From TrEMBL:
Superkingdom of source: Bacteria
SUPFAM superfamilies xrefs: Periplasmic binding protein-like II, Winged helix' DNA-binding domain
Domain HTH lysR-type: 1-58
Listed Pfam families: HTH_1, LysR_substrate
Keyword terms: DNA-binding, Transcription, Transcription regulation
Cited InterPro entries: HTH-type_LysR_regulators (IPR050950), LysR_HTH_N (IPR000847), LysR_subst-bd (IPR005119), WH-like_DNA-bd_sf (IPR036388), WH_DNA-bd_sf (IPR036390)
Family: Belongs to the LysR transcriptional regulatory family.
Protein name, UniProt field: LysR family transcriptional regulator
Cell membrane listed as a keyword: no
Length: 290
């Protein structure tokens, strides 16, 4: 499968129209249509549903779009690294996950010291971050511990957070200073999407995840449940630093009792082939946290 065909495929997926895609690629429409048909024949799967007004992706097409993005990103990343002058510290360092003050400090120090170094930040849930780490399209991921030490190297960031309940200020639980397990019995809850975190919270509550009155889930590193709470959907288990309510006239945060503390860590693929810039970043981060 040629990289050129993947670029053609992504153009059509983006434009949802053969004519517009052909124009963006500066090739003729018949030529583009022919090559897409050849791609489908090569894979033995239909990738597009060709409608009168627009083109949509089949299930196999959606998968190919995801993989094509990763393949092209990795190719471009490799080309940049190889083309980089071996005597210079430069290139792009990609970091995904939650915001971290110490990581932000390290990136600022590296950017000031090495003008050729650029940073690319990526948001996504833990599963997506780990998948990108595995494929090499992401250099580092900021994850909630515990981190899978079989697959990843790991540097604790010494930054802690705590679980609590996000709610409307005029609700009955808002009068409490802390939230205890008995307080959430029967309460409509919005839980983090990650199964491991759901189990940790259900253990705190003393009941199974199935017994919790869960009405929605969300990715704590990517989505803020505040809008859902404001519209009366329920109560959200959230991390204090990710849902700042200090300036909100309608929302408040109450910590759990007994408290559940978490810590963030920086993870990267085991046995990596790092660029010099990535090596300098790790060295700088270690100086700040160790």
């Amino acid at each position: 499968m040629e990289l050129r065909l993947l670029r053609y495929f992504l153009a059509v997926a983006r434009e949802e129209n053969i004519t517009r895609a052909a124009e963006s690629l500066h090739i003729t429409q018949p030529s583009l249509s022919k090559q897409l048909m050849e791609l489908e024949q090569e894979l033995g799967k239909q990738l597009f549903i060709r409608g009168k007004r627009k083109i949509t992706l089949t299930e196999e097409g959606v998968l190919l779009r995801k993989r094509a993005d990763e393949i092209l990103m990795l190719c471009e990343k490799t080309q940049r690294e190889i083309a980089q002058d071996s005597d210079l510290i430069g290139g792009v360092i990609s970091i995904g996950g939650a915001q971290s003050p110490v990581v932000a400090q390290a990136t600022s120090l590296i950017a000031d010291r090495y003008l050729g170094v650029k940073f690319q930040f990526f948001n996504g849930d833990a599963e997506t971050l780990m998948e990108r780490l595995d494929h090499g399209t992401l250099d580092f991921g900021i994850l909630i511990e515990p981190v899978d030490l079989v697959k990843y190297e790991h540097l604790p960031l010494n930054e802690t957070d705590e679980w609590g309940l996000l709610m409307q200020k005029d609700c009955s639980l808002a009068s409490k200073k802390v939230i205890r397990p008995e307080d959430i019995q029967g309460v409509p809850l919005i839980l983090p999407q990650r199964i491991g975190l759901q189990r940790e919270l259900s253990t705190w509550a003393g009941i199974s995840t199935e017994q919790l009155n869960t009405i929605a889930t969300f990715d704590i590193l990517f989505n803020n449940p505040s809008l859902l709470i404001k519209n009366g959907l329920g109560y959200a288990f959230a991390l204090r630093t990710l849902v700042d309510t200090s300036e909100s006239p309608t929302l408040c945060f109450r910590p759990l009792e007994p408290a559940i503390k978490i810590q963030y860590g920086l993870a990267w693929k085991r046995y990596p082939i790092f660029s010099k810039a990535a090596e300098k970043f790790i060295e700088q981060l270690r100086e700040l946290v160790e």
